[in-house]
Design a protein that fits this description.
The protein has helices spanning 3-8, 17-40, 44-56, 61-68, 72-84, 106-127, 132-155; strands at 88-93, 96-104. The protein is mainly α. It has a two-stranded antiparallel sheet. Residues 148-171 are annotated as: Disordered.
């Protein structure tokens, strides 16, 4: 059976497209994780937030959570860690302390400026394995898959995970 047919009609875990994406992320992303954690003392999640803030200039925590595609709890933990490391500034809004603005500190901007080219190089090395026509087709396919995923999420979101994950969810 071809990979294409297996991805449309998976029979086992290894046939699933999402499983292949997870394996790709684990294999290719490990270099970035080692670079971030070993070289700069930040997690991949913290790196993502630094990049988003570098691009946007400043964001409210809820906007950062949305752009990072994380729940507010995980975002809050990462923001707290970045604040403790001196990589972010948090500015509370006058009259509403809940509406804070986040932006990179000078140290955060310097870290981003130093680390981003290294991550770009890793990305370039990976993409060098794919000829241009295939890369264009892949980008187009990923855009369609992202659109479809958003449509599916909007039409029938899956149930939320139980707060106490130690107990299995039994229908």
């Amino acid at each position: 059976m071809t990979d294409l047919h297996r991805w449309r009609h998976p029979a086992v875990l290894d046939d699933m497209f999402l499983y292949h994406l997870a394996r790709l992320q684990a294999a290719a992303g490990s270099r970035v994780v080692r670079l971030c954690e070993g070289g700069y003392g930040i997690t991949r999640r913290e790196w993502r937030m630094l990049c988003l803030l570098a691009e946007a200039g400043q964001l409210q925590p809820s906007q950062l959570a949305e752009q990072a595609q994380l729940d507010r709890t995980r975002t809050s933990r990462a923001v707290t860690a970045l604040l403790a490391k001196g990589l972010l500034w948090k500015e509370s809004q006058v009259g509403d302390a809940r509406r804070a603005l986040l932006r990179l500190s000078d140290t955060g901007r310097a870290l981003h400026a130093e680390l981003f080219p290294q991550v770009q190089a890793i990305n370039r090395e990976l993409m060098d394995a794919v000829p241009e026509p295939e890369l264009q087709a892949m980008a187009s396919a990923f855009a369609r898959i992202r659109t479809r995923a958003r449509e599916l999420e909007a039409s029938s979101p899956p149930p939320k995970a139980p707060r106490n994950r130690r107990k299995p969810a039994v229908p």
